[in-house]
Amino acid sequence: MNIHQLALPFITNYKPTKDYYEEYFKQHEDIFTYYFEHHCRNKEQKLEHAIKRHPEILLKMNDICEAMPQMIESIAAAYEARYPVKFTKDLYIIVGLNGSNAYTYRAMDPEIAFCVEKLPADEPALKTIIAHEFGHAVHHLLAIRANIEATKIPWMSPYTWLLQEGSATYLSTQVVQAAEDVYFAYEKDEAWLAFCKENEKEIAQALHEELVNKTPVEIFKEWFSINGGEKYGYTRLGYYIGYQLFIHLMENTNELNALTFWQSPHFEKLMEQALVQLGR
After folding, report:
1. What is the dihedral of CA 178, 175, 105, 221, to 10 degrees?
2. Nearest to residue 104, comparing CAs of 150, 138, 136, 71?
3. Residue among 221, 224, 205 at smallest CA distance from 161
4. Angle between helices 200-213 and 267-278 (to 10 degrees)
5. How many CB atoms lie within 10 A of CB 23?
6. pLDDT at 112
7. CB of 214 within 8 A of CB of 177?
8. Looking at residue 105, what is its pLDDT?
9. Residue 59, CA atoms < 13 Å, CB-side half-sphere
10. Which stretches of the chain score pLDDT less than 70?
11. What digits encode the pLDDT tens for the residues 29-73?
């Protein structure tokens, strides 16, 4: 695994101008073409905002950049010690425009990117985000090991997203220590977790109803995106439900079967049944 530290040079030589940002994006064109297509829409508007905001958080971003490599290596080693996986792909630490905080991409054996302007300075929260993103990579690598063909996974199904986020959240709990709410919110948010626990059945029922009546795009925004949360006033509730579904699958089979559950012949139907049961 090669860690490409692309954020520190940007921070060290920082200039609050549009040309400075555009030159940075051009230097790493392959990375940022994907970033702006999939993880940061409305580039021009966000660039104007970043030029105003980034000077205020340069020191914070610098500290995060300096802390991350050791955390990354430690978390990767913990996963490799616990699971039959090996991380061989590139990892990028970049400065973005306040889109996603991190993402895996390109393949079942994925590359990983972290966007420092969106990352928390708090150590447990930062470690949790790193562990969550590596958790996605572990999930995919275990699928490869189980001979699951990527073309047979229903990638645009919300049930796949539930399994992915539930698995990554669970896996992060296996390699880093943090408060329970931090595993979901990547910051202290006891109110969010308390709401989920107190209303778990209702939330599961509401999600199932929307899965029947709404499009995947609508489901993603409301239940998985930081831009959602209109129904209850809390975003990303799909992460909590996904985690509970994963625990349900693991308790009824075992850890490995839960992690490779998308190889089941009737994957979506079985996930739906588990969701309905969670709502009872």
Report:
1. -30
2. 136
3. 224
4. 140
5. 12
6. 96
7. no
8. 86
9. 1
10. 106
11. 999 999 999 999 999 999 999 999 999 999 999 999 999 999 999
Sign for the pseudo-dihedral over CA of 254, 260, 266, 270: positive
pLDDT tens for 109-120 read 889 999 999 999
Position 227 scores a pLDDT of 87
SS3 annotation, 30-44: HHHHHHHHHCCCCHH
Residue 113 main-chain phi, psi, to 5 deg: -130, 140
- What's the N-to-C CA distance of the chain in angstroms? 44
Nearest to 12 by CA among 58, 72, 67, 45: 58
Residue 115: its H or E element: strand 111-115
Token pair of 144, please? 């490869």
- What is the reported pLDDT for 107? 77
Tokens of 135: 């958790």
